[in-house]
Design goal:
8 helices, elongated, about 230 residues, about 80% helix
């Protein structure tokens, strides 16, 4: 027993909630801001115009990410609360039916009916709502919605990702500003793809190439549009 306590397993799925928001935020910040900066720079705009556009994109994007994550995850949280409230009411009005329902779930997973009922009774004796939330609704401590955490994580990581191309635009020589921004962004995408897949326990080249491809495509399209309209103007 002592060895089991000393050797508590840590699973990568424990971090899936914040990891998803962090990777999404950083990737979006890097790609969208680098694309915006590349598009403005390709239109032969001044460094000041490029930086103003980039900072505006950073602020607007971070706020948008935070608001979007908060609204989205809040909707998930509201749904979870509604399901838990209904489950609480059902436990209060017809506990026996809830025992049978939970036992039936275990039977479908391969447990003998008699044993399944015993397990259901013992688990409900300790935490009836928690047992149904976990095994019937699929709601657990690891997966439960956390709107504020998701919003703050997305806004922060978006800002960190967006800061990279802005820094490149600020320090690069004016004549080579666009290549510097694109090159820095591509390097950041490689690093982000590697960090994201490594943190999730699935580091592979395909993950990195996937992030790199879509980021490069976004920058190429916006730079092309900037070059086109810059030439027309």
């Amino acid at each position: 027993m002592g060895r089991l306590k000393d050797h508590a397993e840590r699973h990568r799925v424990d971090r899936v909630g914040w990891l998803r928001a962090a990777v999404l935020g950083a990737n979006d910040g890097l790609v969208s801001t680098a694309s915006l900066v590349a598009g403005v720079a390709a239109a032969a705009a001044s460094r000041d115009a490029v930086l103003i556009a980039g900072v505006a994109g950073l602020v607007a994007g971070a706020m948008s990410m935070a608001a979007g994550e908060y609204v989205s995850v809040s909707s998930q949280s509201d749904t979870e609360k509604a399901d838990l409230a209904r489950e609480t009411a059902e436990l209060a009005t017809d506990r026996e039916a809830e025992v049978e329902e939970l036992a039936g779930i275990y039977v479908t997973r391969g447990v003998e009916p008699v044993l399944a009922r015993q397990v259901a009774l013992q688990l409900m004796e300790k935490d009836a709502l928690g047992s149904h939330a976990r095994d019937e609704l699929g709601i657990s401590e690891m997966s439960t919605a956390r709107p504020i955490q998701a919003a703050l994580t997305s806004a922060l990581t978006f800002s960190v990702g967006a800061a990279l191309p802005l820094l490149a635009a600020a320090v690069a020589p004016t004549a080579t500003l666009l290549p510097w921004v694109v090159g820095t962004a591509l390097a950041g995408l490689v690093l982000l793809g590697a960090l994201g897949s490594s943190a999730g326990g699935a580091l592979n080249v395909r993950s990195v190439l996937r992030v790199l491809f879509w980021g490069a495509l976004a920058m190429a399209v916006t730079a092309g549009i900037g070059r086109l309209f810059g030439t027309v103007v």
